[in-house]
Design brief:
The protein is α/β, with parallel strands linked by helices. 47% of the residues lie in helices and 10% in strands. The protein is built from 15 helices and 10 strands. The protein has helices at 3-11, 31-48, 65-74, 79-87, 105-128, 134-142, 154-163, 205-212, 241-244, 262-267, 281-307, 323-326, 333-363, 371-375, 401-425, and strands at 23-27, 49-50, 59-63, 179-186, 192-195, 222-224, 227-230, 250-254, 312-316, 368-369. The strands form 2 sheets. Strands 1, 3, 4, 5, 6, 7, 8 and 9 form an 8-stranded mixed beta sheet that branches. The chain has a two-stranded antiparallel sheet with strand order 2-10. A hairpin with a 5-residue loop joins strand 4 and strand 5 (192-195).
Length: 426
Amino acid sequence: MTTDAAKAARSAGAPATGARARIGLALAGGGPLGGIYEIGALLALGDSIEGLDFAAVDVCVGVSSGGFVAAGLANGMSPAQMYRLFIDGGRHAALTPELFLKPALAEFGRRAASLPRLAWRALRQFARDPAHRGALEALATLAHAMPTGLFDNHAIERFLARLFAAPGRSDDFRRLAHRLFIVATNLDTGQPVAFGSPGYDHVPISRAVEASAALPGLFPPVEIDGAHYVDGALNKTLNASLALDCGLDLLVCINPLVPLDASAAWQHGRLSVRRLARGGLPLVLSQTFRAVIHSRMQAGMDRYAARYPGTDIVLFEPAPEDVEMFFARIFSYAQRRKLCAIAFESVRAQLRARRPELAPRLARHGLRIRDAQLDDRARAIAAAVDDPRPLHAGRGRDTGLRAVRRDLEFVLRHLEREVEALRAAR
């Protein structure tokens, strides 16, 4: 088939003869909750769609917490492996909630050291005009002593650097088998920056993820090459165009944050009140933030469909009446496992509801919905996280022989279960 014919086939929605479909993945942000939902969604999609291997997609784009997941996938980690590391509370757990809650002592120290100088300047400003602008100018000067973040995000970078230093992985964008983009926002210009693109691919992946997840107020800005970066979701929710510009046949998008439809949840008996304002300021702020980023994402999805007619774009996100995801408490492993299981079943329900639409679109790219597994209402997330591949990742002293022994034990247990299943089937 000629090049022109191949392009025409893609525009018509059919892959070129003999060509492997190019598949991409775009993951939005949403804090730790967003990462939990995304892992559950990936597990559901991989379990229900034959031929879909997220650890081997051609392009991954991650923003904020989506950057954690995208970086792991680009390093060949399966969603099941990430579940064992980030969600499960068992012996493989490595990303504990405490890692996100270490005080930013260095930032506190720098701001405290500047306080005497700022206080002297504020006193002089107040003395020059105490009855009018002096007080306001003095307060504005003292505000410079406030920390830019409460928690230390360097711990996250160190964790990821160790994780990607394991055999078969890399902390270097340029050494990955597939394309990876991690999006952050340049604080001084307000513009998005795609780490992994030319001119920004020399930055370590772990550092880029740290910058992309630096939510203002919680984490200090991250300095890279003299510039300061914060959360990548400030400009765009998905940044899917980075993947689409690479020439894809299929792009899977996952957005973990949607505004809650309290009226629908109340009518279904899932919410005790119909008005979120009764929950106070935290609920009002959460709903406002979700509504803003979701409306922006919807506008972006409409533009993507018009600009990239030759690419199938599918989006998965929580249902608007999903109370559990809205009111989630994420800093406990029991809650994390529960939320991941909810995301798993929610996406399976979406696949069942959208099967008439999705099945032919997926088939165009060599993918097939596993109807028997999808229709098995008793199938739980445990069936999807049973990945025999070793992790090869440790924390601190848990490396070398100890990590190998741990991974070997996991593989042996998996083989024992397979042998028992074969015997039972005879």
